[in-house]
Amino acid sequence: MLIRSRRAAGLVAIAAASMLTITACGGSETPPKEELLGFDSCGDKPLTCNTGETKPGGTLVYYEEQDIATWNTVSAEGGHYATSVMLGGLIPAVYQGGPDTKPMLDTNLVVEEPKVTSTSPQTVVYKIKPEAVWSDGTPISADDFAYAFRARNTRDCPDCGTSSSSGYDILQSVVGSDGGKTVTATFQAGKVFPDWKSLFGEIYPAHIAKQAGDDNTPAGLKKSWDALGKTQPKWSGGPFMIESYAQGQQLVQVPNPKWWGAKPPLEKLIFKIVTDQSSFVPALQNGEINAGDPQPNLDMVTQVQNQQGVNYRVAGGLSWEHIDLNLQNKFLKDKPLREAVFKAIDVPGIINRTVGTFWKDAKPLKNHNFTPESQHYKDVVSDTGAGSADIEGAKKVLTAAGYTGVGTALKTPAGEPVTLRFRHTEGNVNRAATAELVQATLKQLGINMTIQTTNTLSTTLDSGDFDLIVYAWVNTPFFFQGAQQLWGSKSDSNYGHWVNPEADAVLNQGIQAGLDEAKGADLLNQADAMMSKDYYVLPLFQRPNFMVAKSDYVNIRPNSTSTGPTFNTEQWGLKATAN
What is the distance between the alpha carbons of residues 346 and 66, in angstroms, rounded to a whole number? Predict the structure, then answer.
């Protein structure tokens, strides 16, 4: 499962939402209401469910399905969910995606909600807390904000390869005052960015970047950017810091002694990396892990439901499963073949075989930017016939385009046999089933499709080592920024290399019009309809968010945004009454 980055990967929720924060629970003098313990109230009270008093000490082991992709979570290689979740307790962010799917202000980092002080040009002012410091004692300052701007605007470092330049690319300047504790970000004249709250999410230490080679030149900036990705952080700007890391095994974190906020109750937080989904339930039963948010399947959900002393919740959210085509593949460059492939695929059949077995609310998704809960959701897929299991219609498309061997052994109009590779993450039961269903479907068109797994999804996507691939985007509340990042022709997150200048223009118009949210969203839907007609990405369904935690741990809450449940690790702990 992927994200574009921890806070800057939005596609679905309303950006102009009210800001909500969670108050630390460890020192509460009022006993929590019993109905708030566990996950049963998370639907109605996502920000306060499972609230409880904690006692100091203890270790929590969190199950994670993928390894660290890179230590730079905002690089093109690092904008992936597992990496973001595991490093969430180290990297400061102005806003994150909250459990209510709205932007959440980090009041540990800033004094007050940032202010838009001008609209011509658009200007935003941030006030950093005076006591906010990196773990080596260096103040968190405007220099760190400026480093993010320079590394991600594509002008100062064209080769840095950020997960998203959206918003940064139209910033004119980022300057500091008040000893570096006030930051003023000014956009270019005539440019607006409705999702400005997506900026300055993961903030990296500028002084560490300087030590790694940043000398304000493109080459120096690139050198520091690469170093941040390759070098395990000895620094932290959050409640935890890394004690040790064993590749493919676990990441161990301990409280950051320089953390200026409330002291975390936990003595240790361990992320146990296990790529085999079948290990999740046994590990939970044996006490090897205490919590996790794995991608669910029928057996896993059923077994968890039968366990005592476990909180769990299955619900829809901001993540969605999809099949992507690599348009650099010599066969898939041809639009009629793409159309035939997508028309033949049976999305309802895939749902019935996978998430529909344990989640009754699962249904086909028909938009690439919004989920059905959004007021801006519009079906832009059905008119294309994609996902409709129309085998005969697919055959007609191929025949009309000059293909031969339709239904037996498909050949291009030039006479070359069509062969394709379908990839999915290793150990993922539902994705394996999806691959098998697509393989059987394409065989009816005469296409020989082989299936390959990957245990390094980020590398597979970044290198383009796929023809077809199934995975999930995990989004934040910032849908304008997310649309540009995913579908913009120049984006490093556009892994399948779809290019449509007309759609690019409409997409950019939507972003510039986004201060009028309804107008901007309508333009995004227009651009999305163009992409649907190009048969590039086939949405399957909203991915069910499955959160599991032992009931003797409190203040852990489901969070279906790309931020994930680790948004508040400084509050996690053993219940005060737990044995």
Answer: 28
Q: Are 241 and 235 in contact (CB under 8 A)?
A: yes
User: What is the distance between the alpha carbons of residues 260 and 121, in angstroms, rounded to a whole number?
Assistant: 35
Cα(125)–Cα(358) distance, integer angstroms: 47
What percent of the chain shows pLDDT beyond 70? 93
Computed on alpha carbons and rounded to an integer, the radius of gyration of the chain in Å comes to 23
**CA separation (Å) from 177 to 8, 42, 184, 185, 349?**
25, 41, 8, 12, 58
Q: Evaluate whether 288 touches 279 at the Cβ level (below 8 Å).
A: no
Orientation angle between helical segments 391-400 and 335-344, nearest 10 degrees? 170
CA distance 198 to 160: 19
Do the bridges between strand 291-292 and strand 59-64 make them parallel or antiparallel, or are there none, so unpaired? parallel
C-alpha span between 419 and 410 (Å, rounded): 9
pTM: 0.78
**For residue 328, how many C-alpha atoms fall within 13 Å in the half-sphere facing its CB?**
9
Each residue's pLDDT tens digit, 330-342: 999 999 999 999 9
Give long-range contacts, CB 8 A cutoff, 24+ apart: 275-279.
275/65, 275/66, 275/67, 275/425, 275/426, 275/427, 275/455, 276/426, 276/427, 277/65, 277/427, 277/428, 277/429, 278/427
State yes or no: pLDDT of 150 exceeds 70. yes
Residue 159: φ, ψ to 5°: -100, 10
Q: How far apart are CA 564 and CA 62, in angstroms?
A: 12
The whole-number pLDDT of residue 76 equals 81
Confidence of residue 36 (pLDDT cuts 50, 70, 90): low
Average pLDDT over residues 353-366: 94
Phi and psi (nearest 5°) for 383? -65, -20
- What does the chain come to in residues? 579
Nearest to 6 by CA among 525, 326, 485: 485
Q: Which pLDDT belongs to residue 416? A: 98
- Round to whole Å and give the CA distance between 560 and 50: 16
Per-residue b or e along 17-50, where b marks 16 or more CB atoms closer than 10 Å to that residue's CB = eeeeebebbbeeeeebeeebbbbebbeebbbbbb
